[in-house]
Amino acid sequence: MRAMIRASILTMLLTAVGMAQTSAPDVNTVVSRMQTAMGGRNHDRAYSVTREYRLVPEDPNKASRVVAEVNALPSGKKDYRITEGGGQAENVVRKVLDHETEVTNQNNGAVLTADNYDFVLAGTEAIDGHRCYVLQLKPKRDGKDILRGRAWVDADSYLVRQIAGTPTKSPSWWIKDLQVTLHYREMQGLWLQDSTQAVAQVRVVGKHTLTARALDVRTDTTLAGNLQTPVRKRSRRVDPALLGAGVIRH
């Protein structure tokens, strides 16, 4: 009988120790590990991502498609070229990509930092079948790239799997509301943004949705020699409502 009691006590102690070891770390630890994990990715190889963009107004029959190739170097430099598209949708995508390359070239894309946010650990959720820590993002300043929302951080790798929220500063007067979701996953050994959705309520013309998805990823040392600033077309005159619907970071 005593042996059974001792065994039961030992089992409970081991269970308690195991629970303590698997409990969630504090928010500072999650943020620190996230920044270390994200900072160590994609800096050792050149790569090229082919993306498909779709701009969909309230009438889905008027949807437009654009394909772009986005190139990046280990140094952090990024550029792009449009391979398919035209009209207003192409001009919207050019504005989006101009902003993306400008921001990336300035700060290497690091935005989830203590300079921009206070972080609150809001529990755990699954993204793509992976357990994630949910960080509530409380902006410290206003900006087109600063989101009031949440980030999902993989509990094993501490890489960001998803960010969703509303920019603290509208990209345009025409935008009354903008909801952005950025999704990330591993592609060809790189941790990349593989899809984006931005849903905007645009003054006068109504709801517009801009989506982007990665069609292909190439990693090749020859990309470093091929990455050059492209000759960009002169932008056509664009309906400002549509332009406002697309000017967000991707």
Question: What report would you give on this structure?
Answer:
A hairpin with a 7-residue loop joins strand 1 (47-56) and strand 2 (64-72). The chain has a ten-stranded antiparallel β-sheet with strand order 3-2-1-10-9-8-7-6-5-4. The radius of gyration is 22 Å and the shape is globular. Helix 3 (87-107) crosses helix 5 (240-246). It has helices at residues 2-22, 27-39, 87-107, 223-226, 240-246, and strands at 47-56, 64-72, 78-84, 117-127, 130-139, 147-154, 160-167, 175-187, 190-202, 206-219. The protein has one domain (47-228): outer membrane lipoprotein receptor (LolB), chain A (Clam). The protein is an alpha+beta fold. Keywords: Signal. Residues 113-194 form the Uncharacterized protein TP-0789 domain. Residues 1-20 form the signal peptide.
For this entry, give a set of tags:
single chain, 5 helices, signal, outer membrane lipoprotein receptor (LolB), chain A, alpha+beta, 250 residues, TP_0789-like
Task: Indicate the radius of gyration in whole angstroms.
Answer: 22 Å
CATH top level is Mainly Beta
Strand content: 35-45%
Number of domains: 1
Instruction: Count the DSSP helices.
Output: 5
The SSE string, one letter per element, is HHEEEHEEEEEEEHH
For the largest beta-sheet, the strand count, sense and barrel status come to:
10 strands, antiparallel
CATH topology: outer membrane lipoprotein receptor (LolB), chain A
The overall strand count is 10
Q: What class would the helix/strand composition place it in? A: alpha+beta
Alpha-carbon distance between the two ends? 65 Å
How are the strands of the biggest sheet laid out side by side?
3-2-1-10-9-8-7-6-5-4
